[in-house]
Design a protein that fits this description.
The protein has 145 residues and is mainly α. It is 49% helix and 0% strand. α2 crosses α3. The N terminus is likely disordered. Bound molecules: zinc ion (ZN).
């Protein structure tokens, strides 16, 4: 009887959108980009390097200033859709304070979402250097991370 000593392991590669939504590293799709979950009271800090593949997220000093523009675009899209939804729900065209209050509350509630997803969008789809690398993914999985 022959015993096969090489263990053939197969891993399913998570989809790009799923890893982006979960805040995983763009190169290995395994390590977390952030120190804690989005709506926790803990630190909102982004990790300096991927804990699985050691990718340095801030590829040059001040790189995340670009994320401010992404965050701005996200905020504008959210505010416009919030105000349109407010109009359809309330039918109000006389009182501007309703729109101002709803817009302020929504921008405060969505600040952690914008902070996180502006960086994720920047690293996943606006940084050509950070592409998914199947070899890195395989190496990380073989290490058991
Ligand atoms: Zn990684």
């Amino acid at each position: 009887m022959e015993i096969n000593k090489t263990m053939e392991m197969t891993y399913t590669i998570p989809s790009e959108l799923k890893s982006a939504m979960a805040g995983k590293c763009p190169r290995c799709r395994t390590g977390n980009m952030f120190a804690s979950p989005m709506f926790s009271f803990g630190s909102k800090r982004m990790l300096e390097r991927c804990p699985a593949c050691d990718l340095k997220f801030e590829k040059e000093p001040g790189y995340f200033y670009v994320a401010m523009y992404v965050s701005y675009a996200l905020s504008v899209a959210e505010l416009v859709s919030t105000c349109v939804a407010t109009y359809f729900i309330s039918g109000n065209l006389e009182n501007p304070w309703l729109y101002i209050i709803v817009a302020l509350v929504m921008s405060l509630l969505l600040a952690p979402v914008n902070n996180r997803y502006s960086r994720i969008i920047l690293l996943y789809w606006m940084t050509p250097l950070f592409k998914f690398n199947p070899k890195v993914f395989e190496r990380v999985k073989e290490k058991g991370l």
